[in-house]
Amino acid sequence: DKIIVTPHLAASTIEAQTNVAKDIAEQILAVLQGKYSSYAVNAPHVSSELIPFIKAASTTGSLASQLMEGQIKSLHLKYCGEVVNYDCSPIKTAAISGLLRQTVEERINLVNASLIAAQRGLKISEEKETNCTNYSNLLTLKIDTEKGAITISTTVRNGEIHIIQINDFWMDIVPAGGCFLFCDHIDQAGLVGAIGSITGKLDINISSMHLSRLQPRGQALMILALDKALTEEQRQEILAIHGIHTAKAVKL
Questions:
Q1: pTM
Q2: Which of 51, 52, 107, 206 has its CA 20 to 30 A from that of 87?
């Protein structure tokens, strides 16, 4: 008794009706997974060129929600480069969806995200800039919370998402999905080895690592891509290393 029926939409042959049924099922699955439906009656049509930017916005919002501290007060989106030539409303909705999915009890998707954000009093602003230095496109999210702010910039290159900046730290990371550890720390000798020693002892493989620092021996950011997630006890063991200020587990 959990059946949804739909008309065949003028498909007059068995093959045509099979294709329509398959397409409807794929669209329903997309919505249930929090993705954008190309043919939703209560959402704007999304072109294939816009899909990578929508994914980038959702990923960036999700990352921000896992790194930030405190209750969200406002979200500012800045679009630069070729992305400004499109209708950016689906990108904004995807960013809101990714941001709220980790922080609210309601089931968030790309249809109800803006409504839930409005109900919660989230202030949302947008900015467009045609010129984009060093990149053909750039999407920047700035989230203000009651405890501070976080800014994350991403770009889409050949259909692939690249995280290029978190606050003042520059990088180039492809969030292909999986488990990550973000560590704020002091740039000092031996720290990378100390973390590697712990993950090795735990039989947790590091598939990639990125280090970014503001200046030698100053504040730095380390990002580890892991083959499996850390337990809370394991994360605390890494956090206890001298020189590490924060160690946040992230799943993208």
A1: 0.84
A2: 107
